């Protein structure tokens, strides 16, 4: 169990391992995405400049795959925890899917973007927008009003993740840090647990996932197993103490 006191602020970081339990492939696993595509082919500004149709083909396939999956019990467990904690809960995900939202989570920071959002390649005044367009045979990539091509709203390799100021502030305030299904390899997310401990002194740190992360040394407790099985029974919320006046 992970005890959560009434004053605790909880930071949750989720990674590809959690989505894999719902049927979405990870990047580096046995059936990972990068066994079919190299990073430089589909997920970098260089790839976009070289062959934007190949990039859109890759992300169109991922959009199609997303329509076939559902949240697992771990997603629902985090949504229930958010209901209990309110603004003491901060959920940051490395995943671009919308499984957290489908399970009922409302406060989700997608540091690597969202698979069903797009934006102008020129970063013009048009903000990112919801989009389920997919590249079909012979189709042309849509253009923005400014003339730029529409690209997936994804943080590619070599780009700065989204929401880093909010993430840093939440890490500074958190008292409980929980990583779920992350490899502990990809930066800057791999350093979040270390940053939280350095900024606040003692922070209780936990990891849940099928395999030990590379940054295992920074966690007080590592719980190995499917997050969909472990998370629903992991949280012990402590009720606030009442003073004499409240007790009557």
Can you walk through the features of this model?
Helices cover 30% and strands 20% of the residues. By secondary structure, it is an alpha/beta fold. The longest helix is centred in the N-terminal third of the chain and has 15 residues, at 52-66. The protein has 2 domains: 1-24 and 71-112 and 163-248, TPP-binding domain (Rossmann fold, 3-Layer(aba) Sandwich), CATH 3.40.50.1220; 25-68 and 113-154, SIR2/SIRT2 'Small Domain' (2-Layer Sandwich). Strand 3, helix 6 and strand 4 (108-110) form a beta-alpha-beta unit. The mean pLDDT is 91.
What is the overall shape?
elongated
State the secondary-structure class.
alpha/beta
CATH class of the largest domain: Alpha Beta
CATH superfamily annotation of the largest domain: TPP-binding domain
Work out the number of β strands: 11
- Major β-sheet strand ordering: 4-3-2-8-9-10
Low-confidence stretches: none
In CATH, the topology of the largest domain is named Rossmann fold
β-sheet strand percentage: 15-25%
Order of helices and strands: EEHHHHHEHEEEEHEHEEHEH
**Number of helices in the DSSP assignment:** 10
Tally the structural domains: 2
How far the N terminus sits from the C terminus, by CA atoms, comes to 32 Å
CATH architecture of the largest domain: 3-Layer(aba) Sandwich
Helical amount: 25-40%
């Amino acid at each position: 169990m992970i005890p959560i006191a009434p004053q605790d602020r909880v930071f949750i970081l989720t990674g590809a391992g959690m989505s894999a339990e719902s049927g979405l492939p990870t990047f580096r696993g046995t059936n990972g995405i990068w066994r079919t595509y190299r990073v430089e082919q589909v997920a970098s500004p260089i790839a976009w400049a070289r062959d934007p149709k190949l990039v859109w083909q890759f992300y169109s396939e991922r959009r199609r795959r997303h329509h076939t999956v559902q949240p697992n019990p771990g997603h629902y467990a985090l949504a229930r925890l958010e209901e209990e904690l309110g603004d003491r809960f901060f959920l940051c995900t490395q995943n671009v899917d919308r499984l957290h939202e489908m399970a009922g989570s409302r406060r989700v920071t997608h540091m690597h973007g969202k698979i069903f959002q797009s934006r102008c390649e020129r970063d013009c005044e048009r903000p990112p927008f919801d989009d389920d367009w997919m590249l079909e045979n012979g189709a042309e990539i849509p253009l923005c009003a400014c003339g730029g091509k529409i690209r997936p709203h994804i943080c590619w390799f070599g780009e700065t993740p989204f929401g880093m100021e909010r993430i840093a502030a939440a890490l500074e305030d958190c008292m409980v840090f929980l990583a779920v299904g992350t490899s502990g390899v990809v930066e800057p997310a791999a350093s979040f647990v270390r940053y939280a401990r350095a900024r606040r002194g003692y922070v209780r740190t936990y990891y849940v996932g099928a395999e030990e992360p590379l940054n295992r040394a920074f966690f007080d407790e590592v719980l190995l197993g499917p997050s969909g099985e472990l998370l629903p029974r992991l949280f012990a919320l402590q009720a606030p103490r009442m003073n004499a006046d409240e007790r009557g």
